[in-house]
């Protein structure tokens, strides 16, 4: 049943982007290469066409105008580590990169738009991959903490919400298992879980660093964005099917959520099935890791998690019921405060501004979080580079012609619809519903 209702008065409405997806200018103004720069220039035939993307680095004013149009209360964006520190190691920051992020944050604060800053959205400095093997090497944990410390020192007076790492499951699984993401290693199951292990420890170290050194005077909040599918049994009364669904959730969301939001250790499902590959946490590490999130940042939407060709055999059905997965999180992890940190839908590359399917999905996703969360991030502000899909799909509320020089941001139907939701703080009875009317507003 669709609920026509409004959200709490202080509910946070936002939109998000990832630096690598929208900034462009990968070699401009002293920026160093990232593992994604190397990956796409090695593996993509038309790599030259992706160097600018939406060109947010050059057209910051256009992004700010798009935010003004929507009327959002926060903007979630990531900092490009190699734009600040081209070789990865924390030395003198690249002044032009530093100026860009300071200008962005100052401009948001001036507009009363809360900055929510992600420290790592997949663009590891290439130098750290080449020298250390990237996240496979524990040495990167301390280097990441040094980078985080710099960001807290420089930006923390204006930033109250921090995300350490965006969706570590995809970093580990697609970076080292399927090879679909940078650095493009395939089939190295031990590497997958070593990377996951180091990402968890890196997050915990940064949380403790912030909690001890910065929170007392900056008074901010810090978490890690975790993503998942949602899966339901074919037969709701079949104990075997129910158990398989529970196990599937533990392998994906529980892999990172149970150590951080639970008891500091991996789910038994993982430990039993992967005992020869899964690293162990010491008792001291478990105590250090558990509780290292001030809220539960959750990503849900286009499905990167589907086990290939196994669902029918396992008696499970993928579901887009966001309310049900939120209930699962509340039951598993003692009712945490939840921020929807990423939610949206793909449209085909040929779709320009009439993205009614995206509106239908947005309407239903948002309606399912009424009263359950404290903030919602529509993803994404504008069209950009969509990782392994490159430019074959779009996720923006604003359309961008990537071949144009000026990269104008043109609001799609979904932008107009989201703007109304933000203005109404939810769904009033008169708010038009494209589920039954596919015409543009």
UniProtKB/TrEMBL annotation:
GO terms (BP aspect): carbohydrate metabolic process
Annotated GO MF terms: hydrolase activity, hydrolyzing O-glycosyl compounds
Pfam family, one: Glyco_hydro_1
Top-level taxon of the source organism: Eukaryota
Stored SUPFAM superfamilies: (Trans)glycosidases
InterPro entries noted in UniProt: GH (IPR017853), GH_1_N_CS (IPR033132), Glyco_hydro_1 (IPR001360)
Xref: PANTHER family: BETA-KLOTHO, GLYCOSYL HYDROLASE
Family, as annotated: Belongs to the glycosyl hydrolase 1 family.
Name of the featured protein: Klotho beta
Organism in which the protein naturally occurs: Gopherus evgoodei
